[in-house]
Amino acid sequence: MSDEPARWTQATVHPDMWTDPDNDPRENTGPSPDGELATLQDFLTGYRLTLRMKCEGLDAEQLARRSVPPSTMSLLGLVRHLAETERDWRGWIGDEPAPAKLYGARDADFDGAVGEESQVVAAFRDLEREQEETDAALAAHPDLGERVGKNKIAIRELLVHRIEEYARHCGHADLLRERVDGRVGQ
C-alpha cells in the first residue's frame, strides 16, 4: 500500500479539469471585459478565486500540510504569503514606509502556517482585508501609466505583478492540493 492519494476530480464533462465549466464560478459566458484595466482586474479576480477553490473542502491540518522536504510550502502558507504580499504592494504605491509584516520575520508566512482552525480563519480574513485595502489604494490611481511611490512604478506594472504572483502560486496550489488528497488541477 502507498500513502499517495489517488488522483481524482469532481469534473464529469472534462475529467482532466478541476470542475465542470457549468459549475466553475470563474467561467464567464458573457463578452470579455472592455479595456485594459477591466481585463487586468478580471484576470486577478480569476486567480484569486482559483486559490480559494484549491483550498475548499480541506481541514486545517490538510491546508497546513507541507509539500515535500525541505520546502515549507503549504496551501495555508500560500494564503498567508499572498496576504503579506498584498500588504507589501501597498508600500510601493505611496511614499509612506511599507506596512509592518503581518506574520513577523522573513518566511514566517510559510514557517508559521500550522494546522489550527483559528489560524486558517485568521489567514483568510487577513487575505481578504489586504486584498480590499490594496484594491482601494490602486483604485485611487485609474491611469495605468501613472507612476507612484518612491520607485515611480507604473500602476500597470503593479497590477500585472499581482496577476503574476497569484498565477504562479495557483500553479503551486495545484500541486499542493494534489499531494494532499489527489484532486487534480486545471
Ends apart, CA distance between termini: 28 Å
The CATH first-level class comes to Mainly Alpha
Q: How many extended strands?
A: 2
Query: In total, how many domains does the architecture comprise?
Result: 1
Pfam family, one: MST
Protein name: DinB family protein
Region (Disordered): 1-38
Topology (SSEs and partners):
Elements: H1 36-55, H2 60-64, H3 75-93, H4 108-111, H5 117-139, E1 147-148, E2 153-154, H6 155-181
Antiparallel strand pairs: 1-2
Commentary on this structure:
With 186 residues, the chain is mainly alpha-helical. The chain has a single domain (35-181), classed as Four Helix Bundle (Hemerythrin (Met), subunit A) (Up-down Bundle), CATH 1.20.120.450. 53% of the residues lie in helices and 2% in strands. The chain is built from six helices and two strands; from the N terminus they run H-H-H-H-H-E-E-H. It has helices at residues 36-55, 60-64, 75-93, 108-111, 117-139, 155-181, and strands at 147-148, 153-154. Strands 1-2 form a two-stranded antiparallel sheet. Strand 1 (147-148) and strand 2 (153-154) form a beta hairpin. The longest helix has 27 residues, at 155-181. It starts with 35 loop residues before the first helix and ends in a 5-residue tail after the last helix. Pfam families: MST. Residues 1-38 are annotated as: Disordered.
